Amino acid sequence: MNIAKSGYRVFSANSSAACTELAKKITERLGVELGKSVVFQESNRETRVDVKESVRGQTIFIIQTIPRDVNTAIMELLVMAYALKTSCAKNIIGVIPYFPYSKQCKMRKRGSIVCKLLASMLAKAGLTHIITMDLHQKEIQGFFSFPVDNLRASPFLIQYIQEEIPNYRNAIIVAKSPAAAKRAQSYAERLRLGLAVIHGEAQCSESDMADGRHSPPSVRNTTGHTGLELPLMMAKEKPPITVVGDVGGRIAIIVDDIIDDVGDFVAAAEILKERGAYKIYIMATHGLLSADAPRLIEESAIDEVVVTNTVPHEVQKLQCPKIKTVDVSMILAEAIRRIHNGESMAYLFRNITVDD
């Protein structure tokens, strides 16, 4: 029997509990069945994908969450996309709530822009569209040769603040660095709350050493041809940590897009406690929470960490009861429905400014 070209299917790119759970939530909201496929690792760790039903002429949505084994998840997505492409799928759309390698989107000395490489690999594998959420930098959308819908988790996190944080009107939104001030300002304006910014650092970290602040070297090379006499660059030096804004007697809500290595957040919480904040919340879209993050959070001054289910973190929640989850499957399902029906996506970005 011929399958209608207007049909669409939703597949899960791996069989992990978290990815399957998110895929089931999305398909339940859409009223469709999850596509039949098998994704597994061979004994030599090679990824294998078997699609168990016809996809000819259909639009396919692949849901892929990114667990701790990032590179395996990427290969699963690439292999499944290519399997669907060679099975004559009409369109292949990746639903990747957290886009991996998004922090490697700028050149660092003699490194590489891995995020751009990954975008090219996905296009080559057969993807024609991507749905993601809160890219680390919005400019990443320019790395792709096909459309990218960068959804926002802020409406769900703002709703959590309004419904789950008692006396949130006495709160203040905090940016843990000047770089995060624009995101914090967006939350503050929507919630009609004040804004505070943490500036400075306790000591020079390894990442700062790699950002070029100490290059070129302070001593000129006088051997051979010196070329133009360029002025020497002054090394950056951040001031001691200060808090711009009054947090005394307030609930401090730190907002960011990714929480992974929690050292900066723990240090920020200690500073806010010293400045008089009596409760401290962390709001982030992607809760990677790597390494000892759950233990550090449990032992810190942080009262609660709220993240969405874009990234699996069930193990971390068992280790730290302070971690709470907000479900964003609703907006992912609505994005799939609108794309399939050819409807405008503008509704999903209502009240979101160009600079947000």
TrEMBL record:
Record flagged with keyword Transmembrane helix: no
NCBIfam families in the record: ribP_PPkin
GO molecular function: ATP binding; magnesium ion binding; ribose phosphate diphosphokinase activity
GO CC term, one of those recorded: ribose phosphate diphosphokinase complex
Annotated source species: Betta splendens
Keywords: Nucleotide biosynthesis
Gene3D superfamilies from the UniProt entry: 3.40.50.2020
Family: Belongs to the ribose-phosphate pyrophosphokinase family.
Database matches in SUPFAM superfamilies: PRTase-like
Biological process per Gene Ontology, one example term: purine nucleotide biosynthetic process
UniProt cross-references to PANTHER family, sorted A to Z: PHOSPHORIBOSYL PYROPHOSPHATE SYNTHASE-ASSOCIATED PROTEIN 1, RIBOSE-PHOSPHATE DIPHOSPHOKINASE FAMILY MEMBER
ATP-binding is among the record's keywords: no
Protein name (database record): Phosphoribosyl pyrophosphate synthase-associated protein 1 isoform X2
InterPro entries according to UniProt: Pribosyltran_N, PRTase-like, PRTase_dom, Rib-P_diPkinase
Domain named Ribose-phosphate pyrophosphokinase N-terminal: residues: 16-126
Pfam families cross-referenced by the UniProt entry: Pribosyl_synth, Pribosyltran_N
